[in-house]
Amino acid sequence: MESQESHKLWGGRFSSETNPKLEKLNSSLHLDRRMYAEDIEGSKAYAVALEEIHLISNSEKEDICQGLDRIRIEWDKNEFITKNGEEDIHTTNERRLKELIGEPATKLHVGRSRNDQVVTDMKLWLKTNLATLKNAIRLLIDTIVTRSLKEIDVIMPGYTHLQRAQPIRWAHYLLSHAWSLKNDYDRLLNNFQLLDVMPLGSGALAGNPFNIDRLKLAENLHFSQITPNSMQAVSDRDFIADFLFWASMVGIHLSRLAEDFIIFSSKEFEFVTIDESFSTGSSLMPQKRNPDSLELIRGIGGGLFGQCCSFMMVLKSLPSTYNKDLQSDKEAMFTTFDKLTSILEVTTGTVKTLKVNSEKCRSALSYEMLATDVAYYLVRKGVPFRTAHHIAGRVVAEAEEKNVNICDLTLEELRSISSYFEVDVGRVWNYENSIEQYQATGGTAKSSVLTQINILKSWLKSQDGEEKACQPN
Ligand code: ARG
């Protein structure tokens, strides 16, 4: 049986075995095995580059590439057997390659280090997998847009400070979340730019001593640029920090949506009913139906920033180039990726299946929410806004004093406050009329909400086309 030490790439200068506790702590294989395909892709491209500068022969390159293809199949089929004490995906794949093809495997790592290898793998992994998150965000936006169109006539109170403010369309409210998510989507595209710079060929820190053709290597790995400084390249994890911050922002947006629906689904509001498939019950109180889906989204959404924050602290004050502290980048990246994916999916499911109770939404409107409209009525009669605001305030106070709704004050009572009130003031006491004033772009009037829906619909369509164009034939 082989000794454990023989699996180590750096065993040569050591005479005693690694302490098992350290070995366990040091190993990242349980996490970075997810990058097996990227590690193999990077190694194959590197082998091609080595052959071009005659550091390996054509047949050695062939052996290496075929061996790597076999390893890939083993991983794909879940048949790859890792060994105790193996450090990471790079070590494991190289060990297996040697088992499969023998000597040529030992030439593959020339001029390369796990330091440039790991960053390359991570960039490749993110480049591929961010598509999952892109799709998940698009699906959620699509769900919101579909609902908004179907339920465009539902009206409800809009809130500031969680106090009833002005009547709005439910669709306008829903779309407010879609627009935040659209911003997230656009920001994600910016993140792709940093990912598109290839670090491979930076070695441990000093660069590549064999004048490897890095541009060609980048082209083979579908990177559009190469890193300009090897020391920066091996220590750079800004792209991870960017990803974590981006994910935190999405998490925050989802948590706000979740909080709204938790409030809206409470008995006190009952604007929405969360579908049973996205709720749970209580083991003690039989009547309970809890919005667990939304609470998980809210909690996990907030927790994402914890990952971001903690990784930023790992980066802070690190001395130049590679330090093992950086290995925690995998946990941050994968955990964030997985959690964000699942809360996006659950948000989409919850939003898609919830029921909006249009009657409850409407009956939560109250006439004092039209006080601003009283002021606007007066402005349209030529009263300066500040004066109009003051008069409307007096109307509210008068109604309060008389213990009636503002719409129940008689024309005489109104005229005793301001002679600008005329019989057409009756038009003010209508929620739809109020909503329909807001026709300027971005407002809650039907035309403006439809414009938003159309913009988002054609954007979704254009992204769909883009996605298909990017797919390999
Ligand atoms: N598993 C390591 C990581 O993820 C790979 C780089 C190891 N480099 C080293 N010099 N020990 O960071």
UniProtKB/TrEMBL annotation:
Concerning SUPFAM superfamilies, the annotation shows: L-aspartase-like
Residue ranges of every copy of the Fumarate lyase N-terminal domain listed in the record: 12-306
Q: Please, which domain of life does this record's source organism belong to?
A: Eukaryota
Task: Report the coiled-coil segments.
Answer: none
Q: In this protein, which residues make up the domain named Argininosuccinate lyase C-terminal?
A: 369-436
| Family the entry assigns | Belongs to the lyase 1 family. Argininosuccinate lyase subfamily.
Q: What is this protein called?
A: Argininosuccinate lyase
- Lineage summary: Eukaryota, Metazoa, Ecdysozoa, Arthropoda, Hexapoda
